[in-house]
Every structure is written in structure tokens, then in C-alpha cells.
Amino acid sequence: MVLSNLGEKLKESLRKLVKAGLIDPKIVDELIADIKKALIGSDVNIELANKICNTIRNRALKEKPPKGITAREHTINIVYEELTKFLGGQEGRIEITEKPTKIMLVGLFGSGKTTTAGKLAKMYKKKGLKVCLVQTDTWRPAAYDQLKQLAEKVHVPFYGEKEEKDPVKIIKKYEKDFHRFNVVIIDTAGRDALNKELIEEIKKVKTALNPHESLLVLSGDIGQGAQKQAQMFHNAVKVSGVIITKLDGTAKGGGALTACAATAAPVKFIGVGEHIEDLEAFKPKNFVGRLLGMGDLETLLKKAEEAMKKEDAEKMGKKMLKGDFTLQDLFDQMEAMKKMGPLSQVANMIPGMGMAKLPKGFMGTQEEKLKVWKHIMLSMTPEEKNNPDIIKPSRIERIAKGSGRSMQEVRELLKQYKQMKKVMKMMGSPAQMKKIKKMMGGKLPKNLPF
Predict the structure, then answer these.
(1) In the chain, what percentage of residues exceed pLDDT 90?
(2) Which of 79, 168, 298, 345 could cross-link 341 (Cys pair, CB 3.0–4.6 Å)?
């Protein structure tokens, strides 16, 4: 998970709050101390960390909980609301209304700009839009080949000139084709630092292109330094937003996110992994929900709909939450989950799952188990998958031999399947969903499968 250390520390502080019998000033002060340590440990500026913690403390001690919500639930909701505000509050969305909508990426060497261009192309193509990638980075020798390979990987048209040294000439040569696309993504050159030469080049490209969005790509590992860099780029070339990359592999991501939120350039996307699909629109509410273990149902449902048809996702969701699913349903769900990303990412989107204190490495172990289960289920007959109750010792032996696994592993699958049905039924109960809704301040995404 992105910012996993920060998330785990914040969840641990909320677990202490949940266990507390009475919410008094002492408990609130302990909560604030834990949150402050967690934020500073994630490279958040000390002054900003103090500011948010003071706001949470004042609200928690002075505000009366709304009717029907306990002081504990209200305090958790205050933490959620203030962290959301701290990260910019509203989603920095990009509206694709004009054809073409031109998105220009700027940034320094090593920020992941070219890779991000490919990820953006993949994201918009998945939405059914016509996309192309344009190379104007005439400075870095490998830029042309890298972007061309990414375009081929995501199956979108590529425009560029390997020998051309003037980026404006590249734009002028191909701009007549841009009207064919909904989204045109332009990768520009970088430098080791924002110098006069880079500023002048970006300004020339921007004038020739007249982009709808000028997005600064920043690496999350620069932490608090993101604020200065974002402000400098904004002042120099008027960037409209920021994309923060490499958030999955740094402990300084909190500093980068909060630093950018303090500038006039909102964070619009975040890189959450190395794969071409690992780019997300930055939605502070959803992001904080995952950090605090409240889940992110909106993103979870979106990923589920991308992995399977909407009608199938809704039908499966209802069956799962009723605890009324077969091994065949579980198999289909596992196949869909493979398309949704690593199990740890998916688990953090499920309300309540993130708050469970799981052993270190548990999710990795479970991922391996799922592979074993898949082999076992492939050796079952359709009748056995749709009615697991008929699987007796003789069938277990046959399934084990057919899958190359042990009888014990087959029994474990059947045991886990029964336990999973019970847990899902409990999580989908009206009482549990009411509790989750309370924690989220009465706000849940629309079109949920329950």
C-alpha cells in the first residue's frame, strides 16, 4: 500500500481509541501525539503536523457528536475530515470535454515523466477515449525510444522525430493530426534543475501547443522538497496540477503530498506502483479512507467494474455480502481480482479490512495461497464448484491428485471457503454497514451492491 508505514501508524492510533472506554482529554492527547509522530515520520513538515493536530484536538474536545453517533465515532470522523482537508480536500479532476484535450507533462530528470505519460495513456484508453502520445523531449537520448515503446505497449498512436532538436517543430509537424484524438499527451524535456534554459523551452512548447493542462511530474521521494519545486514550476510556467510518482517505494510520500497541497498546484494523480496500470486520480477522501482503514468503496467498485461487467460486479457483490456464493463464484472473483491489482491494495479498499491487525507478510502469503487454490479448483468438476458440500474424502483425494497438491491443502481450501462465507455475511449485515456509514460521516458511494 502507498504510505503503508504512515497508514499502519494512523490505524494503530485509531485502534487505541476504539479500545478506550471513555473519550476524555487524556485519550485525545494520546491520539494527537500518535498522529503527530506518524505524520512527522512520513516527512510531513513539523509546522503543518502541529497545525492539523491542534485542529483535531480542538474539534474533538469542543464539538458535540451529532445525534446517533458516539464520541468515539465522531472523533474518528474528525481525524478523517481534517486529514482530507490537509491533503487538498477536493479531487483535482481533469475534465475531458474538448477534442482534443491536450495534456503537457513537465518535470526534472528522474521524476518518472515519460513512464507517467504511458500510464496516463493507458488510463484514458481504458475509459474508451482515443489517445496519442507525443515526444518533444529532444534532450534525453533514450526519450524517443522509451515513449515509442510505451505507446506500443498500451496500443496508442505515437508521434515524434528522433533526430529533430527543436520540440516546437515536432508539434507543428503533427498538430494537424491531433483533432482525431480525445486526449493528446505530450512528454517534454527535463533537466537536472529548473534553470533558465528549461523554463524558456517549456514556455516555447506551451505557446506552440496551447495545452488544456500543464502537469508537473514530481517524484515522491523528494518529500518536503516537493513544495519548493512545485511552487517554482508554478511561478515559472504556470502548471495547473501535479502528478506525484513513486509513492509506493518511499517513506517521504506524506511530505510530498502535503507540501503540494500547500501550493496553488493541486495533486491530480499519484503513481502507486511500477506497472502501467498503477496510476490513480488523487481523491483525498478516498486516499485518507484507505490510510485510516476505513476502506475506499468507490475505487474498489470502479476497479471491479473494470475487471468485469457492471451487471456481473453488482450481482457478485450482492452474493458475496450475503455469504451466498459458491466455489465457482469464488474462482470467478479470484480471476477478476487478478485484474484489480495486488491483494494488499484490494484489501485496503474494503471497509474495516484495513483496521484488522494482520501479521507482517500475511497478504503475500495469501497471494500464494490463492494461486494454489486456483490449481485445486481447476481440478474440480462444475458440479463440485457449484455445490462444495458434495466434496467428500474420495473426491478430495481425486482433486488433490489432479491438481498436484496435497489432500490437506484441498481441505484447507474448503475450510477457508466456509469461513469466508461467514465473514462476508457478517460484513454485509445491515448493522455492520450502518457502523461503516457512521464512521464515514454518513457518506457512502452511490450504486453500492447492497
Answers:
(1) 27
(2) 345
